[in-house]
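Lecture notes, unit on protein representations.

Consider one protein chain, 367 amino acids long.
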Amino acid sequence: MAIGRFPRALLAAFSVLLWASHVLAEAGILTNGAGDGFKCAGVYGSPNGHEGRRSAIEIEIPPVPPSDIAIAIFDYPDSRWIGIPVKEGIKLPDEQVGLPSTFINSDRDPESTDKSAGMHRFTICNNETIAMGLCTDIARGRPLINDRDKDGQPRHFNSIIYSDYAMLNRSGPGYTRLEYNEWLSAHNGTDDHTDQWRSKPRTTILEGATLQWMADGTLKIRYLVNTTGYYCVDAASLRDFTARAEWVNSYGLLPASEYPKMYIYLALTIAYTGIALAWAVMSWRVWAEILPVQNQLLGLVCLLAVDMGMNFGFWKHYNSTGAPSMVYSVFTLVIDAGRNSLSFFMLLVVALGWGVVRPSLGKMMIR
């Protein structure tokens, strides 16, 4: 069947559904490469949860290939504290620290090193940074966090920065640097019998995140979001890897960038309904003096109220189910088309004098 014969409303509905299928929850694939391991999205904070749900950032890392991956999760305004900038062997003061061009993958970015100024931002705890005193051996592999101010006091962040180093195992669960440090702390600093816990499926609760190791070696990280913000996930490795990150909001399945639309349409529905009721009451009081064009305008306002209500229903359904509704889509698009047609029709006939200087346009109205 030719496209020209396809009902336009259904074709438009299909286009909306195709677009809407790409806005379900913010998600991204993290891979090894310049900037490919870095993704950000907005999240509404939920310190107490909404109907038992919590806003969170969820990361899933499969064990193949079995990479060692440095991971950082942070609110974007705190990104200036990811990595420690050093000039001529001295840590830069806070007032000279700006946003990095990249974050924990900065060793691959030539912009991270300003040779003319002698400045370099160190992003990973390794032998070099340990020797410089920027970190200690228990943090080896983890992203460096500039967590002390110029007076040596703990720095206040917008949200908890999760910084870890995951060591994946193809044949089963691996472990992370933070898990290992927790084990040492609980066992008086000795690493005897560590295989008893790190080789089995388990759930580990850490400050800022919950780690779940599956039997096949898959690592799932869940970072709870208490404060509304624009949160970033950054992952880097010397080997190839693939991970999936998803930004989950407590209110439902819409991404944070789309969520305000639902309440904008609700507010417009209430506003247009109020205007229509007020217009109807005033028209009834002076019904004998009402012009035909004024009744047409009342019908247009009622149609606008229905249009906004259908749009609200579409996004409400989408937020609850995670999938667009064909019924809402078709009705919304048909009403949108009717609203636009009626608006231009009213503009045209009033411009021709109907209801103002001419009681009827005759055959011209039909045309």
